[in-house]
Amino acid sequence: MCDVQLWIENHASSGLLSWADQQAAAKRFNVSVACIEAISLKRGILPTRYQRNGAMLSCHDQLCLFSSHVAVVGCGGLGGFVVEELARLGVGHITIIDPDVFEEHNLNRQLFSSTDVLGCDKVTIAAQRIAQVNPATVITPKVKEFRRDNGIGLLAGAQVVVDALDSIATRLELAEVCRELEVPLVHGAIGGWYGHVTTLMPEHHHLEQIYQQPDSRGIEKKLGNPSFTPAVIASLQVAEVSKLLLDRGDLLDNRLLMVDLLDMELSEISF
Question: pTM for the whole thing?
Fold first, then answer.
């Protein structure tokens, strides 16, 4: 291990380790690039991919993100953007849970969809994509439908869970499992020009206040989903996840942030 540390320190430039050197070190010492990233961050050396994070996140912060495990339930419009942004941010382990395959109607908004992957498992394609975006992020793909009876196993080890579902009934089951596991849940929902975000701490039951008709699939079917609304709401969810992992800033805890992109208005409801 000392040899690896010395090699990294000798090849770092201005406190940064390039992707080429990360790859070279992994090959030289027969370890994963994730291992090299961990060693680098522990030595206070930032992989160059995170250079633009440096003004707002310290090397210690980056190590905290790298050491974190986030579960994303749903890999469609919201989930695709959430997964990619978490990986680009530097979260080290992401579990992705979704039973579906890509269909043609996904092409207008789902980040990982393309004509080449129609009929393919969403989580498998997501894992392949993230392997190209940030190979140091470990992806655990689970082609499973989230349910109350399998939820504890699917979310095992996650420090934060992201709700990227489109079923109200399943969202409520997810909230119940997160309470049981005592894990925060970052909830987001979209429909047409509109969306909302809130962060649910384990002791809260706010989702039941938001949704009064648990059998409904929500308003997505009625209002539609364009390309931009999922990207906006997913980004707000990722901001909440990062604050939870880093224990920083004011969370949307006990607050529901509502976004109206048609009139460009933000409003807030307190629980």
Answer: 0.96
- Of the residues 25, 41, 59, which one is the last residue of a structural domain? 59
- Residues 25 and 73 grouped into a single domain: no
Does residue 127 share a domain with residue 247? yes
Instruction: Indicate whether 195 and 174 sit together in one domain.
Output: yes
Read out DSSP for the chain? -HHHHHHHHHH-BTTEE-HHHHHHHHHHHT--HHHHHHHHHHTT-EEGGGGGGTTTS-HHHHHHHHT-EEEEE--SHHHHHHHHHHHHHT-SEEEEE---B--GGGTTT-TT--GGGTTSBHHHHHHHHHHHH-TTSEEEEE-----TTTHHHHTTT-SEEEE--S-HHHHHHHHHHHHHHT--EEEEEEETTEEEEEEE-TT--HHHHH-S-TT---SHHHH---SHHHHHHHHHHHHHHHHHHHT-S---BTEEEEEETTTTEEEEEE-
Residue that terminates a domain, selected from 29, 59, 89: 59
Domain holding 180, by residue range, is 68-270
Render pLDDT for 8-62 as a digit per residue (tens, 0 to 9): 999 999 999 999 999 999 999 999 999 999 999 999 999 999 999 989 999 999 9
- Say if residue 144 is in the same domain as residue 255: yes
